[in-house]
Design goal:
mainly alpha, two-stranded antiparallel sheet, two-stranded antiparallel ribbon, single chain
C-alpha cells in the first residue's frame, strides 16, 4: 500500500546565502602584501549564525517528534477499528442492542479516537513541514517561512488524509442508503429486491482505509528512512526515500514475510467487510457465520470461483471484486518471488555448470574411446575374413556410428553450456580485459615507433659521420 511520505530534502551542505549559511564564520580569500594567499575570518551577525550542527540537531529532534506522532496516530487508528469491530460483533451476536449504553459508549470512544487521530495527522504534516524547513535552511517556523515550503500538492495530501481518517460510524442514528439484493425466486430464477444499507455500515467498511498507517509506521521505524547518509545519498541520486523505497527493500530482503502478511490481512478484512454488507442488507442471510464469508473470500481471492456461494448484495459484490483484483496481484507477486527464490545464484550456477561440463567431458572422452574401439574391432573382423555385410561387422559399425553421434552430441552440449554461462559480468570482464590488452598494445606500439624513430636518427647521424670520415680521408690523400 502506497503511503505518501515527505520527499527527502537536499543534503545538508553550505548554502549560497549568508542568512542560511551552515558555517559559523564566513571565509574569504585575500592576498597578503608578499603575495601569499591566506584566509581571513569575518564574524557573522547573531541572527545569521545558523550552523550545520544546529540544523542536524534540529532535524534529528523533528524526526524523533515525527516518530512519536506516527506511533500515536497508528495506536489511535487501530483503537478506533477495534472499538467498531467489537461493537459490530456484539450487536450481530445479539449480546447488546443498537440503542444500548454499551454500543453508544463504543461509538463515542470511536468518535473521540477519530478526533484525536485527525489532530495527530495535522501534527504529522506540521512536523514534515518543519523537517523540510530544517533541511532547507530556514531558521524558524514563525512569520511566513512555512508558506515557502507549503505547496498545492501538500495541501491536497493533507485534506485527502483528513477525509480518509474521518470515516467512522456516527454515535447518533443516521439514514440508510437504498441498494439492491439478489434472491432466488420460486421458479429458480433470480429476482432483484430493494433493500436498505445503513450509512454506519458503509462508514464501518471505509474505516479500514486508515490501515495505511501501518505502512507509515514501518517507514518511520526503518533504518533506511532514519539514516542521514541514506537521505543524502538518495537526494544526490534523485531517489525518494519513501514508502515505496522501503517496501521494495523489504521485498528484496524478506519477500515471503511481506506477502504472507499482506495476504492474511487482506483475507481477514475482506471477509469481515463482506459479512457486514450481507448481514446489514439481509439479516436472514447465511453469511451471518464468519466461516461462510471466509470461504467466499478465499475462493474469490484465489480466483477459483466454485459457485456454491455467491454474494447477494451489491455492496458485497463490490468487495468481492476488489478481493479478486487483490488476489490476482498477490498471486502474480508470489509467482515472481517464487521464481526468484528458485533461480540459482551466480556462484551456484558456476558450480552446477562446472559439474555439467565435467560430466559432458567424460561422455565425450568415453564416446571417442568407443569410436576407436569399434574401429579396431571392425578392422580385426575384416582381417579375419568376415564379409563386409556380415552381422558382426554391421553390429560394430552401428556401435561406431552411435559412438560418433554421442561424441558430437557431447561436444555440442559443452559448447551450448559454455555460451549459456556467459552473462553480463563475464561480458564486462571480457570487455575490460580486451581494453587492457588494446591499451598495452598501443603502449608497445608507441614505444616501437619511438625506437624506430631513434634508429632512423642514429642511422642519419652515422651516415653523416661516415661522410665526414670519407671527406677527411680524401683530404689526407691529396
Amino acid at each position: 500500500m502506497r503511503v505518501a511520505m515527505e520527499e527527502p530534502a537536499l543534503p545538508l551542505g553550505v548554502a549560497d546565502y549568508s542568512k542560511y549559511s551552515s558555517t559559523d564564520t564566513l571565509l574569504t580569500s585575500v592576498t597578503s602584501d608578499n603575495g601569499s594567499p591566506f584566509r581571513q575570518t569575518m564574524k557573522l551577525d547573531k541572527d545569521q549564525q545558523y550552523s550545520l550542527s544546529q540544523r542536524l540537531r534540529r532535524r534529528k529532534d523533528v524526526l524523533q517528534q515525527r516518530k512519536c506522532i506516527v506511533d500515536i496516530s497508528f495506536a489511535l487508528g487501530i483503537a478506533g477499528i477495534i472499538f467498531v469491530v467489537l461493537d459490530t460483533e456484539l450487536r450481530f451476536g445479539l449480546v447488546i442492542g443498537d440503542d444500548s449504553a454499551v454500543s453508544l459508549l463504543l461509538k463515542i470512544l470511536t468518535s473521540v479516537s477519530t478526533a484525536c487521530l485527525l489532530f495527530a495527522i495535522v501534527a504529522y504534516h506540521v512536523t514534515g513541514l518543519r523537517l523540510h524547513m530544517a533541511s532547507a535552511g530556514f531558521q524558524s517556523f514563525m512569520e511566513k517561512d512555512w508558506r515557502l515550503a507549503m505547496t498545492i500538492t501538500k495541501w491536497c495530501k493533507l485534506l485527502f488524509e483528513l477525509m480518509v481518517c474521518s470515516f467512522h460510524p456516527l454515535p447518533f442514528p443516521t439514514f440508510s442508503l437504498p441498494t439492491v439484493i439478489v434472491r432466488d425466486g420460486s421458479d429458480g430464477k433470480q429476482i432483484l429486491e430493494e433493500a436498505e444499507l445503513p450509512l454506519n455500515a458503509v462508514l464501518t467498511i471505509l474505516m479500514f482505509i486508515r490501515l495505511y498507517l501501518v505502512g507509515r509506521l514501518v517507514v518511520v521505524h526503518s533504518k533506511l528512512f532514519l539514516d542521514t547518509s541514506v537521505q543524502s545519498l538518495g537526494a544526490l541520486s534523485r531517489v525518494k526515500i519513501n514508502a515505496q523505497f522501503v517496501f521494495r527493500a523489504l521485498m528484496s530482503t524478506s519477500p515471503m514475510v511481506v506477502l504472507s502478511s499482506w495476504m492474511f490481512v487482506t483475507f481477514i478484512i475482506n471477509s469481515w467487510n463482506l459479512r457486514v454488507c450481507e448481514v446489514y442488507t439481509d439479516p436472514e442471510s447465511h453469511y451471518t457465520l464468519f466461516g461462510q464469508s471466509m470461504w467466499l473470500t478465499a475462493v474469490t481471492f484465489l480466483t477459483v470461483g466454485y459457485g456454491d456461494l455467491v454474494p447477494r448484495s451489491y455492496c458485497a459484490r463490490v468487495i468481492s471484486s476488489f478481493t479478486g483484483l487483490m488476489g490476482v496481484g498477490s498471486m502474480a507477486l508470489s509467482v515472481a518471488v517464487l521464481a526468484k527464490k528458485l533461480e540459482q545464484s551466480r556462484a551456484e550456477r558456476y558450480v552446477h555448470t562446472f559439474v555439467q561440463q565435467v560430466e559432458l567431458d567424460k561422455r565425450r572422452k568415453n564416446a571417442a574411446a568407443n569410436v576407436v574401439k569399434q574401429a579396431f574391432r571392425i578392422l580385426r573382423e575384416k582381417r579375419g575374413g568376415k564379409a563386409h555385410n556380415s552381422s558382426l561387422v554391421i553390429r560394430h559399425r552401428s556401435r561406431l556410428l552411435q559412438a560418433v553421434r554421442d561424441m558430437h552430441g557431447a561436444q555440442f552440449h559443452m559448447t551450448a553450456l559454455s555460451e549459456f554461462t556467459v552473462g553480463t559480468v563475464e561480458v564486462n570482464t571480457g570487455v575490460n580485459t580486451m581494453q587492457d590488452t588494446v591499451n598495452s598494445i598501443q603502449c608497445e606500439q608507441r614505444d616501437l615507433t619511438q625506437r624506430v624513430a631513434n634508429l632512423e636518427t642514429l642511422a642519419v647521424r652515422m651516415s653523416q659521420h661516415l661522410a665526414d670520415i670519407k671527406a677527411l680521408l680524401k683530404d689526407k690523400k691529396v
